[in-house]
Amino acid sequence: MKIYSRDYTTLTQEEIDEWEVLNEKEIVRRIGKGDLAIRKGRYREYPVAVRHFISLYPNNHLDIVDLQQIEQLTTSTEEFHQIIVNPASNERSILNWIREEKAYFIIASIMKGFYSFGHHDAFKNRYQVHTQFGNNSELN
Q1: What backbone phi and psi angles, to 5 degrees, belong to 38?
Q2: What is the distance between the alpha carbons of residues 1 and 109, in angstroms, rounded to a whole number?
Q3: What pLDDT, in 10s, does the model give residues 26-36?
Q4: pTM (predicted TM-score)
């Protein structure tokens, strides 16, 4: 399953070219014989497809740049509030609305309350490994 109509596991030649240009612009200084480069990230300037492509799950990536569209997010949040306070709404109608409106940020915001996104502590904090006597481990 993927949440976008486009397949982000492949890039167009134009997107690759733009990414390569931005990669070169990221280099602030080269050290030694040029093998080591100091970079200043330009992730937010990458084409949308590139940001998806380099993520672990390209077709299910929630783009950080999309989360800066405050007016659109506010409008969607208000619409979502109207749906969840409606007594006639059920889980299926809520999920259908999220899918149809492409309001996946709502799911991410619910999950963010419980997980530390962007790093492996998301798993570690939720499922702590407790050491027992001997060489055994128990997943809690």
Answers
A1: -95, 130
A2: 20
A3: 999 988 887 88
A4: 0.65
At residue 111, the 3 state secondary structure works out as: helix
CA 60/CA 45 separation, integer angstroms: 20
Per-residue pLDDT reduced to its tens digit, 47-104: 999 999 999 989 888 888 887 888 999 999 999 999 999 999 999 999 999 989 988 8
Phi, psi of 137 (to 5 degrees): -125, 150
- For 20-33, give the DSSP string: HHHHHHHEEEEETT
Assign 3-state DSSP to the chain and report helix, strand, coil percentages, each to 5: 50, 10, 40
From CA 57, how far away is CA 124, in angstroms rounded? 20
CA nearest 31: which of 20, 39, 21? 39
Q: Put residue 50 in one of left, alpha, beta given phi > 0 → left and psi -120 to 50 → alpha.
A: alpha
Give yes or no for residue 118 having a pLDDT over 90. Answer: no
Helices (H) and strands (E) in the chain, counts: 6, 4
Tell me how far apart the alpha carbons of residues 93 and 29 are, in angstroms, rounded to a whole number.
53
